[in-house]
Design a protein that fits this description.
five-stranded antiparallel β-sheet; globular; alpha+beta; 235 residues; 31% helix; Phosphorylase Kinase, domain 1
Length: 235
């Protein structure tokens, strides 16, 4: 490894550090929890450990299915070695079931299935509150070309095709999830993390929420839900 260098960036859930290799970085997963664009803040004990291990399992699963990711290896409970990517400032949200902002925005009934899945783009900008945007908006702002947006959409659907049955086998409904992508050597790769922080997961037998919604909505038993996701995904 050659040691960890300076901190390059600190986000809401992770710190990114330089390594001895210019094309690799180390992600450190924190226990800090935020919601509603960081208006609500708190701590979920061992969240960082859960998210690191769950992300490792899912990145490996996706790599095995031919989907490129930034994952290299998990170094410790909270540390992951990844490729150093240039993040595309577009959050890709894949929705299989009506929930959250989609239900509010369109007046749809939470829990209704969406067949086939839909994809939404959000412009990654904290100052603007990560607004929902369409392809034309992103082209107008020169954030992404039509070709890149097409590829993001295809990757979103491909990832969903792998993850949805994986979670279903473990008695979890993959309601929706957020993806971030980066460019590594001129190629789009999946970056960030896939975890109970970035996925909405409902227990298939009880319908109970097993994700960050428990923190958002003060539902209690947050740590227990995260540990249960870890047990089902990695156990």
């Amino acid at each position: 490894m050659g040691g960890i260098g300076e901190m390059l960036y600190e986000g809401k859930a992770k710190k990114i550090f330089a390594t001895a290799r210019p094309d690799q970085v180390m992600q450190y997963f924190k226990d800090d929890a935020t919601a509603f664009n960081a208006q609500k803040r708190g701590t979920i004990v061992e969240k960082g450990i859960v998210n690191n291990k769950v992300s490792e399992r899912l990145f490996k699963l996706l790599e095995a299915e031919g989907i490129p990711t930034h994952f290299i290896e998990r170094l410790s409970d909270r540390e992951m070695l990844t490729k150093k990517v240039t993040i595309v400032p577009v959050e890709v949200v894949v929705r299989n079931v009506v929930a959250g902002s989609l239900a509010k925005r369109l007046g749809l009934r939470e829990g209704d299935r969406i067949e086939p899945a839909i994809i939404e783009f959000y412009y990654k900008n904290d100052a603007l509150g990560d607004p929902l945007v369409n392809d034309d908006h992103l082209r107008l702002m020169k954030v992404a070309t039509p070709a890149v947006l097409r590829e993001l959409r295809e990757l979103g659907h491909s990832i969903n095709t792998v993850l949805k049955p994986f979670f279903a086998e473990r008695k979890m409904q993959l309601v929706d999830f957020k993806l971030e992508f980066g460019v590594f050597h001129n190629k789009l790769v999946l970056a960030d993390e896939i975890s109970p922080d970035t996925c909405r997961l409902w227990d298939m037998s009880t319908g109970e929420s097993m994700d960050k919604d428990r923190f958002r909505k003060d539902m209690g038993k947050i740590e227990e839900a995260y540990q249960e996701v870890l047990r089902r995904v990695c156990g």
